[in-house]
Structures are given as structure tokens and as C-alpha cells.
Amino acid sequence: MKTFRQISHERFLLLLIIPFLVECFFLAFDVFDRKDWILENVLVVIALVFLVATCRKFPLSRISYSLIFIFLALHEVGSHYTYAEVPYDQWFISLTGHSFNELVGWERNNFDRVIHFFYGLLIAYPMREVYLRIANAEGFWGYFLPFDFMMSTSMLYELIEWGTAEFFGGELGIAYLGTQGDVWDAHKDMLLASIGALIAMLLTLAINRYIQRDFAHEWAHSLKIKHPQPLGEDEIIRLRKEKGS
């Protein structure tokens, strides 16, 4: 039997896709709102196509693939019920006899907030891998840029939600937006995604600081000035001179 490290990245991706598609199949039945389910899964389809299309030329680590599919699996639960209607509190009551919302002091269905937190927590590391391998980010930038990316994409998603809700309007727009009457819903979602990403990068930093021999040198080098000359108008003049020479 092959160990975790002996399984190829392509095969590992396939091993994750199969159970995920099984989950999608069962959660595609008796959905709470079919139109909302379709909207929620547009980005999922795009993500799956992208992962499959790039798995040969740019395979991610098994850790990154696992984190991505944990997030997608949680998202499918939200798309089945719509995020505002996921009955996690009823599930908790049936298991323990107590209300989870009452235990933690929640007054609304916060499944969407939890998923935004997990978006930052689970997807920040795969994005760090992309930045390190494509943009050659190192040291400080290898942690800050993934964190910044998660913050900016969280904001972008809120804008997409707003635009989609405005375009479709009515009950579908309300279901997709999922604010549940909270005027600060988008701000709280972005904050939780940012906190999740920050935790992920701090954990990664702590692990690397412990096991990486040149951690301090790489960190210091990443903050050194690489090009002492100013850009802006000076760079324009230089480029024009190069073009004319």
C-alpha cells in the first residue's frame, strides 16, 4: 500500500475529486433553493476546471489540495441549504439536547460567517504556495502577500454578491446575499476571512521559523532595498532613453 508521499499529485487530486463529486451528487437533490444552488456552484465549477487543467504543469502540494477540498466540501453544504438556512443548530440540538447558538451567544445563523473564516484559514496556504513558486516571493512577502490576497478576494466576493443580488433581485438576490438583516454583514465576513488568513500565515511562519535554517537571513533579505533608484518619472525617462538608443 502506497504511503501519503508515494501517491502522485495528480492521483491525489483525483482521490479528492471523487468523494467531492459524490458529496455534490447527493447534495444536489432536494436543495432549498435551486437557483441559489446554481449561483453558489458557478465558482466551484470554475475552480475544479482550473485545478484539473493545471495539475500536470503546476501541481500543488497534497496539503494545498486537501485544504482546498475541505473548503469546497463545506461550501457545498451551504449551497444545498443556502447559507442562511443551514440547520447546524438543529443538528447540535439533536446530538446534545442543547442549542449551539445559545451556548455561544449567537442570535442569527452564522454558518456563512464560519465559512468566510475557513476561506481565509484554508485557502491562504495554497495561495502562499502560488506566490512562492510563481512570483518568487520570499521572507516577509511570502506571508504578507497571501494574507493580502485573501483580504482582497474576500472584498471582491462581497462585491460579486452585491452585483449578483442587484442583477437578479427578489428572493433569489436576498438568498444569495444572505445578510439576514445585518447592515454590517459584508464587513464582518471580510474581517473573519482576514482573521482566518492571518492565523494560517502565523502558523506557517511559526513552523518555518522552527524548521528552516536560513529563516532569519531570508526574512532580512526580503526587506532589503533591491533597486535603490526611484521609479515614476525617472523610470519613464530611462525607458524612453533605452527605447531611443
Summarize the entry for a quick read.
With 245 residues, the chain is mainly alpha-helical. It has helices at residues 9-27, 34-54, 62-81, 88-96, 100-104, 111-134, 141-168, 170-177, 185-211, 215-222, 233-244.
Q: Which key features would you list for this structure?
A:
mainly alpha; 245 residues; single chain; globular
Question: Runs with pLDDT <50, length 5+?
Answer: none
Give me the secondary-structure category: mainly alpha
Number of domains: 1
Give the helix level as a range of percent. over 70%
Distance between the termini: 64 Å
Count of individual beta strands = 0
The H-and-E topology, N to C, reads as: HHHHHHHHHHH
Number of helices: 11
Shape descriptor reads: globular
> What proportion of the residues form beta strands (DSSP E)?
under 5%
For the largest beta-sheet, the strand count, sense and barrel status come to:
none
- Average per-residue pLDDT, rounded, comes to 90
